[in-house]
Protein: DUF2254 domain-containing protein
Organism: Sinomonas cellulolyticus
Amino acid sequence: MRREAVREYLASALWAMPTAAVVLALIVGAGLSSVLVDPASPLAFLLFEGTADDARNLLVSIASTMVTVIALVLGLTVVALQLASTQFSPRLLRNFLRDIPNQLTLSIFVATFAYSTAGLYTVGIASGQRTETYPRLAVSGALLLLFVSMVMLVFFVHHLAHSIQIDQVMKGVEKATLRVLEHSFVEGDPQVRLPSPPDGAIALPATRSGYVQAIHVRPFVEALEALGMSALIVPIVGRHVVAGTPLAWVWNTDDGGRPPLAPRSLAELRRVILQTVRVGYERTLEQDVAFGIRQLADVASKALSPAVNDPYTANQAVDHLASILAASAVRQHGPRAVEDGQGRVRLYVPARDFDYLVELALGQVRRYGANEPRVVRALLRVCRDVGGFGGEAHRAVVRRYVETLLDDVQRVVPQAADREPLLAEGAAVLAALA
């Protein structure tokens, strides 16, 4: 759990990769400074041919140029972050911070600056005295980094111009959410009913406030089995918890008249539950499919606001949501009953159902865009497509949504020329779903 938390933090830390690049540049520079190439060697053409003063002037010029370029890159990055926050959704900032090309570009620029600056300590100076002997191969390395930095600058401008396009932003969210469904989603069982904690159940409280980022149940189940206990986890992934409120309830279910839970055993359960349920200051996409859906729903809702009034962007967001809902419809959603090694249920884990995901994805779009025929047609198209996936229970959820959408259309679309075609198309979708 700690390794995953550190990895998730470093993935969105803009300083992590540049720091590693600086360390690597210094190591490589030290290594090249100790390499001596014979003038008669076939590799002699790689050596810098200028004087020591030429080499120092070159390194000074590269270092000063990199300072300017780094300031430019950081400024452009901040502009992109502000644009994404104000125009699309503030929840998309995390995606820009995690963007590998942005981190890689900044890392190369910082590494070039550190490499060139560190070279000034050795080029033309030896034991405090001027000398014409210097690591020529290392100076050639600075020239190589300079050319790489110029290429990366052009690439960065190209990438930044594409990354702030709304199509690219929404496609990135869709791909990240589908990746969560593919690799991190654990199917539930709609037939499972979460129990109420019995009298005498013990609460295991949260030690910090924040959002539930991930739940890994196996260590907790093993601890419960060893103590003969059962438990119910209270929050779902993505839910906010307050320090001191229960993360889980535990109670004794094994026969044999076990004595009350010892303080040492209770302390062990409190330690394990903090390893099982990770709480952080922000939501992440590790296991939280609803967070990806929330980001796209935010884009659609903002596009439908009177200040923006951009229904086509809302339609695009709905199209991306259709891919996520279709991938969700072929999976079982709901709570889980986790068994121990002996096949006995030890832990109940709550989770969102498919009805919640459909409402999260399309509910706000329906409420804000029911009076716009193009948005309604996009929603009907999504419902028809998603209804082709999954089973009858999933289609029933989609049918209920379409019925509610048609009720809104009947109520808020005043012109019969707009309203009647929408109602007819909705009736055809309901017939197809039936």
